[in-house]
Amino acid sequence: MSTKPVTAFGPDFPFAYDDWISHPAGLGSIPAEHHGTEVAIIGAGAAGIIAGHELMKLGLRPIIYESGKFGGRLRSETFEGTEDVVAELGGMRFPVSSTGFYHYVDLVGLESQPFPNPLTPAAGSTIVDLEGETHFARTLDDLPRLYHEVAVAYRAALQEHADFADLQQAVRDRDVARLKEIWDPLVEKWDERTFYDFVVSSQAFRSLSFRHREVFGQVGFGTGGWDSDFPNSMLEILRVNLLELDDHQRFIVGGVENVLHRLWRQPAPCAHWPEGTTLASLNGGATLGRASRIWRRNGGFTVTDQWGIVRDYAAVLVTCQSHLLTTSVAVDEAIFDQKLWMALDRTRYMQAAKTFVMVDRPFWNDIDPATDRPILSMTLTDRLTRGTYFFDNGPDKPAVICLSYSWMTDALKVLPLSPEKRVELALAALDKVYPGIDIRSHIRGNPICVSWESDENFLGAFKGALPGHYRYNHRMYGHFMQSAMPYEQRGIFLAGDGISWTPAWVEGAVQTALNAVWGVMTHLGGASDAQNPGPGDLWPTIGPVALDD
After folding, report:
1. Does the domain made of 18-72+254-347+464-542 have the CATH classification 1.10.10.10?
2. pLDDT single digits (tens) 340-352
3. What is d(CA 542, CA 77) in angstroms, rounded to the nearest whole number?
4. Are strands 112-114 and 249-252 parallel, antiparallel or unpaired?
5. Per-residue model confidence as pLDDT tens digits over 112-144
6. Keywords in UniProt for this one (predicted)?
7. Which helix (H) or strand (E) holds 509?
8. 141-250: which CATH topology?
9. Which residues contact 181 (CB under 8 A, 6 or more apart)?
10. What is the pLDDT of residue 3?
11. Verdict on whether the full-model pTM lies above 0.85
């Protein structure tokens, strides 16, 4: 059996994006008469900046619009008075299986370190606090038997329902035929069934108590509890498990937002453009503001910004959350098919909230002489905080505590509250887990908090597909294949993790950005190199299985 690493290869569309972007032949070329052509990109997040970088290399001039903060949901907020002490408000942990994303991390010369997830060496120790019972653990073996039974039951459920071992082996081997042989039937079987249905219908969990299912929801696997995902389509969770998106995670030293800032200023060998050209230089050193209108005109598109300035483009790439196309940007309805509009509007975004504080030092490493344990540990709990994470920047530097990371109902509990109130509630909850431990005296500066659903530029943290949403996802993800579309619908493209099969993971943003690059390239008469076919070249033979409407 192969011991090759698991990568984000498929399963719906098993195209090797990492190989495509690292091939010496490059992604392709466009006719010389289109060199210098301006292409609009709506959004300066991961999808927008990565697509812009690759389109620049083809000889195009990507013009970036950004309505808020550069970086999108790769947002590294620096604590006041420091240079590199950050709170990761959006993406903060990146699995090593995200090989497309790490291509760009390596390209710009940033480093990563293991993320302090529960029960990992990076965390050092973990506290699980459920229903008032507190357990200290360094590994799963340190927890009571019930937790082992839950872990074993979930692995058994994956094998029973999804032939998981063989399926993951096909991912490791990049065996497209075998992967589709197993995965494609699972699409119809599980698209309209929930994560919770998957759990409760398995033989392993049926033989256990409700308490086991409850603990699984609270503690889960990998990064913590998954009960907020119980209503989601099981296909979404299967992809996370299969591609090890919830395993072997790392964080970007200095803040993940730096990946995009560096890529913005990164020179690259380009067709047409002189040596030293960067995405920043092609944009005059700064992005444009909010795009307020996208319209069809003269065979191309016009984009109007928030100041009423109208510019013409040969193509447009939209990377913002799909709901903004009906709430924030006036869009010519005819440029998307009505079935695609249905998919865009039905996209369901999940809520997420984080509360961070900076502290004077990593004091949680202090040893309690009564127990010979650290005084604080990475904490999973059923209390308001849900997940608490500790970030050690070194013994002589301020450190960071993510007091609370919560989703859905737990995130809504703090939605209207001020940062100070959120901190007080989190500290009150942690006081019950760690009685007598004084966190307050270590806090420095002001807290940093986020609720993504309250931001008009996002309206939610990330997509969470509901049962029956596979067809919608198929329409959005495959929209870059435009040769059969009516003329008036060609030339506008979609990208972002919400367009991908793996929402909430930056690899989905990378992959859809690269789909859009292929789409723009071919829309302008270009093509991939014969030695390095692109996603659209292989789509007809290995594309996602289609379900009847």
Report:
1. no
2. 999 999 999 999 9
3. 41
4. antiparallel
5. 999 999 999 999 999 999 999 999 999 999 999
6. Auxin biosynthesis, Plasmid
7. helix 506-523
8. Guanine Nucleotide Dissociation Inhibitor; domain 1 (1.10.405)
9. none
10. 83
11. yes
